[in-house]
User: What shape does this take?
Amino acid sequence: MINIWNGVIFLIITIAVYTVTKRIYRKYSNPFTLPIFLTSGFFIILLGFSDLSYQSYMLGGQWIDLFLGPIVVALALPLYRQLDLIKKYARTIFIGIFAGSIIGIVTGIASAKMLGFEDWIIQSVAAKSVTTPVALSITDTAGGNLSFAAVFVMLAGISGAMFGPVIVRLLRIQHPVARGIGIGTASHAIGTSKALELGELDGAVSALSMTISAVVVSFLVPLFLSLL
Amino acid sequence: MKYVKIILQISVLFLFYYMGEAIQSAFSLFIPGSIIGMLLFFALLTFKLIRVEWVADGIDLLIKDMPIFFVPVTVGVVQYLDFFYGKGSLMIPLVMLSTFLIIGISGWVTSLLLKKEVDAHD
Assistant: This one.
């Protein structure tokens, strides 16, 4: 009974902190005020500097975790809504996303392997370029650590959002479709909100790239990991 | 009534998720069940067997606040903080570099293809 109440309390605090950080983000939008970054940071500091254990936090957190799989299914709806845009640039979109996805997986796996990291780290970084729920599903199937995967995904998102616009400018990538595909394939939803600042088409293409690349990467990661 | 509708719409996602998981384990596929469920749901939307307006409100609500669902699993890293004090910190520049390469190469390949298309039309 006490466990249930602890769980409910943690659940309420999580929702409360998230709601506050959403307000903060609306006022001061930048990659380090993202609600996922601030809210997770809040609880990491809270648990890190108190006697509260992650296990006790998860008494509430486990209810939230139940939604991770179904949220992947939800991504079909925004993808469906963009069907016209996908059809318009179909070939270009798929080749561009495919190229980036392979590069991301190979450089992630190979460099971690070369630095001598253990297999479970390699399995956790392989899907870092895709949106969190899908990366978690892929990592779970691959045998990696979900918390590490979530951190790597966040890092890919934040760094891509911060430096993506600079990279496309330096490489003189000027077409909104090309910019959107690059940023969406590398940095999923966090990158997409930045791509939207570059332009409406950038943002739309980034959003569809994030979903298509998620599907592509979920097929490719098991293949590349089996080569290890 | 509105809440009942939203709960039912979100239940549809659970239904497809569990179907995807069942298909994955039945055929021992290497693709996650959630992705199979998503592709199935996408196919039914595309073939108009499921209409967007039947499911949209609940799904849009969930997507709008999607990041909150990643909080517990991300917080789990608190159990491994030592990792990032040592050699593990190398993973940070590694992930960043790999991310920059994706942006550069995806973007560059795409712009080459787009230019070709324009040339072909000329």
In short: Chain A touches chain B through 101 residues (CB under 8 Å).
